[in-house]
Amino acid sequence: MTVYAPPADTPNADTASARPRTYIEAGYTLRSWLLTTDHKRIAILYMVSITGFFFLGALGAAAVRLELLTPKLDLLSADGYNRAFTLHGVVMVWFFLIPSIPTVFGNFLIPLMIGARDLAFPRLNLLSWYIYVLGGLFTAYVLVAGGVETGWTLYTPLSTKYAPGHTVMAAAAIFVVGFSSILTGLNFIVTIHTLRAPGMTWFRLPIFVWSHYATSVILVLATPVLAMALILLALERALGIGVFDPDLGGDPLLWQHLFWFYSHPAVYIMILPSMGVVTELVTTFSRKRVFGYEFVAFASIAIAIIGFLVWGHHMFVAGQSMYASMVFSFLSFLVAAPSAVKVYNWTATLYKGQLDLRAPLLYAMGFIGLFVFGGLTGLILASLALDVHAHGTAFVVAHFHYIMVGGAVSAYLGALHCWWPKMTGRLYSEFWGRISALLIFFGFNITFFPQYILGWLGMPRRYHSYPPEFQSWEVLSSAGAVMLGVGYLLPLVYLLWSLFYGPRAPANPWGATGLEWRVPSPPPKHNFDEIPVVTWKAYDYPPAREEQG
Amino acid sequence: MTSWLPFWPASASAYADRVDLLVWAFSALIIVLAAPVIIGMVWFAAKYHRGSPADRSDAPTRGFWIEADWTVVPFLLAMIFFVWAAHLYYIVRTPPDGAMEVAVVAKQWMWKFQHPGGQREINELHVPTGQPVKLTMTSQDVIHSLFLPELRLKMDVLPDRYTSIWFQADRPGTYALRCTQFCGTDHALMGGRFIVQEPRDYEAWLQASAVDGTLAQEGERLFRRLGCSGCHGMNSAVHAPDLAGIYGTQQPLADGRFVLADDRYIRDSILMPKRQVVAGYEPIMPSFAGKVSEEEILRLIAYVKSLPREGSKQP
């Protein structure tokens, strides 16, 4: 493995002789971790717990894919299958995808990237993690007590009157974990506003920070709507207050409006931080300034704002008015424009760069490919007449997995590889990193591309048994899932291995320009001995510097 | 047009063909928009990988006009598809006059259909070719969604609401009928057959199916049995609105508003009669909530709909 020396003109604090104590060395007891207020340690706490939830959610997926190997119901019971996909959805969405990048990498990197010693509210940050864990315990209870079979969307009146499982407890788990999101978002907004180092102007912020800013706005504004809706749902189920119950004059569609008012922006909660990560990876590993920095930064904000106005595209066949549907369809097309800006600008960033095809860049390029395809098939679903056919089928499953798994999970893993040396002080195996990136890319496509075809052929989602003519596509999909599973397990092995046996990482193994690379790896407890004064643009790579003068 | 593709679904109507054409065009759009990214990434990775001798001078890091172009051009292209798809959606949401109406009631986990002539069937729907058919649908319990893949059509079926869908199937055959809104334990089994027949075969099927009378006749019997005719009948002494000819007209309400007398209004008037009282009448009608099933309400609606406009006394 080649380890690049940092560029000579990059300030390098990693002098072996007077090395300050790292944040990891600040204490080895369990207590020192569980009561820490250091944003870096809290990020590690999140990383450990989120990894646990990822593999729990993956178990649900494995059960679903195994059951679908044959057209008949043979492995699980009907309700067992319904519980498996509900578990998969609830855990992956609320306990992995939404918190993953912000709580792990946002927490770890935002203060370092903006030249701050910590987040604005360190104790609130720790509290967010405890709230996340509490929500997780509720989920674990639901799992042990027998599960819930409503699907992650909890549509009424199925969830309020007809599903026998532990719906109230599941709603409570989502409610609780939502508060963790709100607190994290609030903390990021205040931090980015108030704790930027001298000279770190808004237009010198890394795009990663911009995208987390946009994400935090969604977290703070949308999550309370979900919280309110969940309270109504729980009251409806427990006391029969009649908000959603048609027999009592309620409206079952009201739930869908409230749910998607949060849950559509939630997709951008998952994807905006991913876009931030990918921007960093593309620019770092091509050693070139982000093409059109301002466009990319503002596109994040545009996506966050328009993202609030498109929820009705989930309801084209639900019985809302035809003209409402047309407006929502139009607005959904509108959100494609800033997304296109991002994708084309990433590609243009690679042009005439010095592409270092390491695992993080492979993950980023995989993200771009899958996101383009997932996004454009999203336009098919935003097209009214086409959605009428594809809605509720495997086509939708394929689409949102391309965005949320092909996109968000690839970005998470890309971030993990890029900042692993910074977080742990160790270098991972580049060979295995590349293998896992390729396995995940190909495994993912084999798993989910067949589901586009299945959906267009008329295979509905959430079916435990299906017409036999669909079987070959289902088998192909399950085979891809095995490959994908291996791709996900590999990093667990070689990254853990690197913790103990990996070579020591220098402060700036990739020759990047961000502030986080100017402190030692791993960073000292207080990040910076002296708060830096920023006098350079973001992504100040050599060719970019020339045009500055 | 699409049979040469092994993984392309069969289509049973001209409308479905139009949807397929849009999908093919959309696929081309996807390729046009994605190709620059995919080709660009692979090409740049090959040419500009670290250590390659490629010329990297004058690498651009911004370009307002090029960025404006690749924001606006894809958006305008996409707009063509938005209008195209919205137009097809408009067609499918606007039933023509004179469509044959079939009543649909969904419940966990079966589909119940009733034809205008009163023929009932479960998990099977027979329709004639060349005839516009409108399904008026409601659910007894949770939300379901009726999906007819070979027509490229689906619509949610909700409790306490009527949704509708219309089509004109042209190609005789037996097709799929599925539920696509997750509705509980046996969601996957809530399907059936959608049978499109030549008109004479459909006629033969109608004749062979036992009936107690048309939907409207059944509704009329029910109207008497439930005692509705005691108040709403022509010779009744009770001051209740005459129902003849009201269907599809605007009814003045006691609070000054007007309401369209459609399926939904008639249903509400049966179940929640005090909610919308017609101007000039006392709110004396009792609620029939819990006393009539969804299917019975559909029959009552069919009966009210069948009452002729002539001879109606205006309040």
TrEMBL record, chain A:
InterPro entries in alphabetical order: Cyt_c_oxase-like_su1_dom (IPR023616), Cyt_c_oxase-like_su1_sf (IPR036927), Cyt_C_Oxase_1 (IPR000883), Cyt_c_Oxase_su1_BS (IPR023615)
Keyword Ubl conjugation belongs to the record: no
Keywords: Electron transport, Heme, Iron, Membrane, Metal-binding, Plasmid, Respiratory chain, Transmembrane, Transmembrane helix, Transport
GO molecular function: cytochrome-c oxidase activity; heme binding
Residue ranges of domain Cytochrome oxidase subunit I profile in the record: 33-535
Cellular localization per UniProt: Membrane
PROSITE patterns (alphabetical): COX1 (PS50855), COX1_CUB (PS00077)
Assigned GO CC terms: membrane
Membrane association type: Multi-pass membrane protein
Gene Ontology process terms (BP): aerobic respiration; electron transport coupled proton transport; respiratory electron transport chain
Transmembrane segments: 43-64, 84-114, 126-148, 168-192, 213-235, 255-278, 290-311, 323-341, 361-386, 398-419, 431-455, 475-497
Homology family: Belongs to the heme-copper respiratory oxidase family.
Official protein name in the record: Cytochrome c oxidase subunit I
Species whose genome carries this gene: Azospirillum brasilense
From TrEMBL, chain B:
Any one GO molecular-function label of the UniProt entry: heme binding
Key word Cell membrane present: no
Catalysed reaction equations from the record: 4 Fe(II)-[cytochrome c] + O2 + 8 H(+)(in) = 4 Fe(III)-[cytochrome c] + 2 H2O + 4 H(+)(out)
Residue ranges of the TM segments: 21-46, 72-92
One Gene Ontology term from the biological process aspect of the record: ATP synthesis coupled electron transport
All copies of domain Cytochrome c, residue ranges: 214-308
Topology with respect to the bilayer: Multi-pass membrane protein
E.C. numbers: 7.1.1.9
Family matches, as CDD domains: CuRO_HCO_II_like_2
Signal sequence, renumbered to the chain: none
Assigned GO CC terms: membrane
UniProt function note: Subunits I and II form the functional core of the enzyme complex. Electrons originating in cytochrome c are transferred via heme a and Cu(A) to the binuclear center formed by heme a3 and Cu(B).
Name the UniProt record assigns to this protein: cytochrome-c oxidase
Name of the gene encoding the protein in the UniProt record: coxB
